[in-house]
Amino acid sequence: MEQTERIAAMEQRLNRAQSTLGQLEQAWESYKGTQDDLAQLDAYLGSDQWQSDREADRLGLLPSTLHHGVLSEDAIWNLLEWQRELMEDIRDWVGL
Question: What is the pTM of this model?
Answer without folding.
Answer: 0.79
